[in-house]
């Protein structure tokens, strides 16, 4: 049963449909009218200039026929919405599954299958979105062995490191990743704009003593901090430190909170980089609050409650969500053998686009009873 009630001089519309109640602004409905006069049928892009609609726009009439909301607006336009679609409008991504060490998943994928089969590729990308990481096996033991799978998703992000770069101990290292030192949990490159979305870490050999990878779910850390210390959580969403990297040929700077929220107040990105953070000289009271909050967050992301330990084998690759996961490694000794990784970046837009288009294609094929 559906009930429709105009409100606020007919500039709002209250709708009760299948037990759910929502209010819609007349302007919002008008600019999203699903008809060919408002939206281009092929591209779905808006044909009218929404900013030129009269701010006093009202709904002249509203009635429901065969599960369709028939509307007439004060500018003379008429349209019809499918009620299920109107109420079912949700973000195009499924929810993420947050985890701690005890409940950590271990999503896995096969390199050849993901390269050759779209359903296997979609399964890998869905796991990456859901869990924040995936371990891919069977990667060719070549310096650019990951490239064919990257080509299935989007362009390789080139940086001052190049394209796919070595991660191994070298003499006169120009970055701490190129040493045998253990690395604290961190996100990569918060000094870039945009920050690389996904890290691809391919193991060529890992015979050194130590060198285990660590992962922590930054969104779970944010949730626990909000539950256990709301003031600290609020501080890390409000205070905006800077991040900086420079060498002889590069000078990069950016800024952003350690916990970044979207318009709904949900964490969408975490930043943590002890090596590159540059906190501004804020008032002492605010700095004291920030340092205490940062310490509370640090204890979460380094504690065993959230830390997952992995040791990659030759031919395995770890793909990580750099907006969500914090990664690190234990120190290693070369007396036991060589540790040689190759690392590349792929941005979020191409990765998300590939996942969504594959999902839509398979969903459409299932509805039509056709093979995907």
Automatic annotation (TrEMBL):
The record's keywords, sorted A to Z, are: Dioxygenase, Iron, Metal-binding, Oxidoreductase
Q: Where are the transmembrane segments?
A: none
Q: Which residues form the Gamma-butyrobetaine hydroxylase-like N-terminal domain?
A: 9-86
Give the protein's cofactors: Fe(2+)
Task: Identify the species of origin.
Answer: Halomonas icarae
Recorded hits in SUPFAM superfamilies, A to Z, give:
Clavaminate synthase-like
Q: Name one Pfam family in it.
A: GBBH-like_N
Q: GO terms for biological process?
A: carnitine biosynthetic process
InterPro entries hit by this protein: AlphaKG_dependent_hydroxylases, GBBH-like_N, GBBH-like_N_sf, TauD-like_sf, TauD/TfdA-like
Please give the family membership noted in the entry. Belongs to the gamma-BBH/TMLD family.
GO MF: 2-oxoglutarate-dependent dioxygenase activity; metal ion binding
Protein's recorded name: DUF971 domain-containing protein
Superkingdom of this protein's organism: Bacteria
Domain TauD/TfdA-like positions: 105-345
| Gene3D superfamilies with a match to the protein in the record | 3.30.2020.30, Clavaminate synthase-like
